[in-house]
Specification:
Elements (H helix, E strand, L loop, with lengths): L1 E3 L7 E6 L6 E7 L4 E5 L5 E9 L2 E8 L6 E4 L20 E4 L3 E6 L7 E6 L7 E6 L7 E8 L4 E8 L2 E10 L4 E9 L7 E9 L4 E8 L5 E5 L5 E3 L17 E2 L2 E2 L5 E7 L11 E7 L15 H10 L3 E6 L8 H5 L8 H13 L5 E11 L1 H12 L6 E5 L5 H6 L3 H10 L7 H7 L12 E6 L7 H13 L4 E6 L9 H19 L2
Parallel strand pairs: 11-15, 23-24, 23-25, 25-26, 26-27, 27-28
Antiparallel strand pairs: 1-2, 2-3, 4-5, 5-6, 6-7, 8-9, 9-10, 10-11, 12-13, 13-14, 14-15, 16-17, 17-18, 18-19, 20-22, 21-22, 22-24
Length: about 500
C-alpha cells in the first residue's frame, strides 16, 4: 500500500500492490493527497486522507466491495465557503481495530494531541480516550501510535524534543489506554530520538534505533523482562564524547509573550576556548519541523562541528515548529516572515544578556524554509549579522511557487499564499524585496537536482546580489537534491560552511 507523487500532475495517487501476482490496484487520486492511513489485515478496508494544510485533514473510507472512497470524517474543501469555520483536527497515526473502529491521534480534544476513538458506523461521534500511566514531565505532544502484538500498542510522545515511548493496551469498552511499560525515556534511552522501532511477537521483544545529540544511532533490543541489549557501537571516530555539546535548555519569551523553545550549544570547556564566543543561529526547515537531539539528522553533526571550532550555536524552534501542539504549529500558516521572523529578533536581544556570547559576531544559517528565513533576516535586519549561509531557501516567493512540482502547488497556495490573490502579501514577505540591504558576506548552497527549491532559485539570489556588488559565494552539488546526503558531499559541505563562518566571525 503506497502513495505516488509523479510531480508532473497536481494529483497524488494511492496504489495497492499484490506482491504474489504483481497486480496493481488504484485506490484513487486527489490533489490533496489521498494518503493511506490505516487498513485491515487483508486490505479490504482502507482509510485514506486528504490534507489541506497541516492539521486540516479529511478521512475517507474505501471498502473493496464498494470501489470508491466515501467521506468518513472531516469537512471537505468542496463543502466550504468563505464563512465556513473549520478548526484543525490534527488527525494523525491510526490503527483499525477489529475492522470496526479507529484508534488514532488527533487534536480534537487536546491542543497537544491525544488518543481518540471513532466507530466506523458512527463517524459523527469521535470520543476521547484517556491515557493512564505516563511518567514524563515537560512540554511537548503525543506524536505516534503503532500496533504491536496481542492487542498491544506503542504510544510515543515528543517531550522537549526527546522521545518517550510507552507500551500498553486499549480498553475499548471504557475508552482507556493503560500504560504498563516505559520503553524509551528512562535509563540508557534518554534525551534522544527513536528513529525506528519494530515489535517481534515471537520473542515479545522490541528492536529500535536511538540517537542523541552526541551519539550516532544505535540499535537496541528491549526484552520482555525489561532487559536492554545494545547491538551496535557506532562512534564518532577521533572525537572523545566529552568534547561534544549536549546543549542547554534556553526557552525564552518572545516579542508578544509567546514561549519559544530553544537550546544553546556551547563549546566544551576542555577545548580551551577563552573569551566571549561568536554565535551562529541555526534555523530549521519546514517550517513545520523541529530541531531535536538527533545525530542522524543533517544539522546535529554540523552543530557539533561548530562547537568544536569555537562557536556557540543557537538552535530555536520558533512558532510554526512541530512538537509543541497544533496551535503553536499553525501560527506560521500564511505568515512566513512575519511573527516567526520577530521571534528570532527577540532571541537576539535576549542573548545579548549572556556574558559568554559575543553578539557583535553573529551569523545565521538555515536550510529550505530555514534558508528562506536566513535570507529574510539578512535583508530585513542587516545590522544584526556578520555572515549568513542560505541552503536552498526560497528567494522570491512568486518564482519559488511557480517552479514547484505540480503536486506541491495546491498546498502552498493554501498554506503560504496565492500568487494572484495574495500578490501584495507575497511581495512583502519575499526576501528578494529586501536583500539589496544585505550588509554581510553570504554563502549559498544548492543541490542541482532539487525539485522543491530548484537551482535557478538560488542562482537568482547569487546573480542579482553579485550585480549589486555584494559578497556572495555559491556552491552547487551536482548529485544532490533538496538536501546534502552523500558522505563525500557532507564532509565537503560541513567544512566549507565552517570555514566560511571562521573567516567572518573569527572564533
Amino acid at each position: 500500500l503506497f502513495n505516488v507523487d509523479l510531480r508532473s500532475t497536481a494529483n497524488h495517487e494511492t496504489w495497492l500492490a499484490d506482491l504474489r501476482t504483481g497486480e496493481l490496484t488504484s485506490l484513487g487520486e486527489s490533489a490533496y493527497g489521498n494518503y493511506p492511513v490505516a487498513h485491515d489485515a487483508d486490505f479490504n478496508t482502507v482509510i485514506l486522507a486528504d490534507q489541506y494544510t497541516f492539521g486540516d485533514v479529511c478521512w475517507y473510507l474505501r471498502r473493496k466491495d464498494e470501489g470508491e472512497r466515501r467521506l468518513l470524517f472531516g469537512t471537505p474543501i468542496t463543502e466550504r465557503n468563505a464563512e465556513t469555520v473549520v478548526e484543525p483536527n490534527g488527525l494523525g497515526a491510526a490503527v483499525l481495530v477489529d475492522g470496526t473502529g479507529l484508534l488514532f491521534i488527533s487534536s480534537l480534544f487536546s491542543d497537544n494531541y491525544g488518543l481518540t476513538w471513532l466507530a466506523l458506523d458512527r463517524p459523527d461521534e469521535a470520543r476521547p480516550v484517556r491515557v493512564d500511566g505516563t511518567v514524563h514531565k515537560g512540554i511537548g505532544e503525543m506524536d505516534n501510535l503503532k500496533e504491536g502484538f496481542a492487542n498491544r500498542y506503542a504510544l510515543s510522545y515528543n517531550i522537549d524534543g526527546a522521545s518517550w515511548v510507552y507500551a500498553g493496551a486499549f480498553d475499548r469498552e471504557n475508552l482507556v489506554f493503560r500504560i504498563d511499560r516505559t520503553l524509551v525515556g528512562e535509563g540508557e534511552l534518554v534525551a534522544g530520538v527513536v528513529e525506528a522501532a519494530e515489535a517481534d511477537p515471537q520473542s515479545n521483544s522490541v528492536a529500535l534505533s536511538f540517537s542523541t545529540a552526541t551519539s550516532p544511532s544505535q540499535i537496541y533490543i528491549l526484552g520482555a523482562n525489561d532487559s536492554l541489549e545494545r547491538q551496535t557501537n557506532e562512534r564518532i571516530l577521533g572525537i572523545p564524547q566529552h568534547l561534544l555539546s549536549s546543549g542547554e535548555e534556553r526557552s525564552y519569551t518572545s516579542h508578544d509573550g509567546l514561549r519559544i523553545s530553544a537550546r544553546l550549544y556551547m563549546p566544551a570547556p576542555e577545548l580551551g576556548f577563552t573569551g566571549r564566543r561568536p554565535v551562529i543561529f541555526y534555523i530549521h526547515g519546514g517550517p513545520q519541523s523541529q530541531e531535536r537531539p538527533d545525530f542522524t539528522w543533517f544539522s546535529m553533526p554540523l552543530i557539533q562541528f561548530f562547537t568544536l571550532n569555537g562557536f556557540a550555536v543557537w538552535v530555536p524552534n520558533v512558532r510554526g515548529s512541530s512538537g509543541y501542539g497544533i496551535s503553536y504549529m499553525k501560527r506560521v500558516d500564511r505568515d512566513w516572515g512575519g511573527l516567526d521572523r520577530l521571534d528570532h529578533v527577540a532571541a537576539f536581544e535576549m542573548l545579548r544578556g549572556d556574558d559568554r556570547l559575543d553578539m557583535d559576531r553573529a551569523g545565521v544559517m538555515g536550510r529550505s524554509y530555514g534558508g528562506y528565513m536566513t535570507l529574510t533576516l539578512a535583508g530585513r535586519h542587516p545590522e544584526l549579522w556578520k555572515a549568513a549561509c542560505d541552503m536552498f531557501g526560497p528567494y522570491n516567493l512568486f518564482t519559488f511557487m511557480d517552479r514547484l512540482p505540480e503536486t506541491w502547488k495546491t498546498y502552498f497556495y493554501m498554506a503560504l499564499g496565492h500568487p494572484e490573490r495574495d500578490k501584495e502579501f507575497l511581495t512583502e514577505r519575499s526576501p528578494s524585496t529586501y536583500l539589496s540591504q544585505l550588509a554581510c558576506p553570504l554563502l549559498v548552497i544548492q543541490g542541482a537536482n532539487d525539485p522543491r527549491v530548484v537551482e535557478r532559485e538560488s542562482r537568482d539570489v547569487v546573480e542579482q546580489l553579485r550585480a549589486q556588488g555584494k559578497d556572495v559565494e555559491y556552491i552547487v552539488y551536482a548529485d544532490e537534491g533538496h538536501d546534502v546526503i552523500k558522505y563525500a558531499n557532507k564532509v565537503d559541505c560541513y567544512g566549507r560552511i565552517t570555514d566560511f563562518f571562521r573567516a567572518q566571525l573569527n572564533p
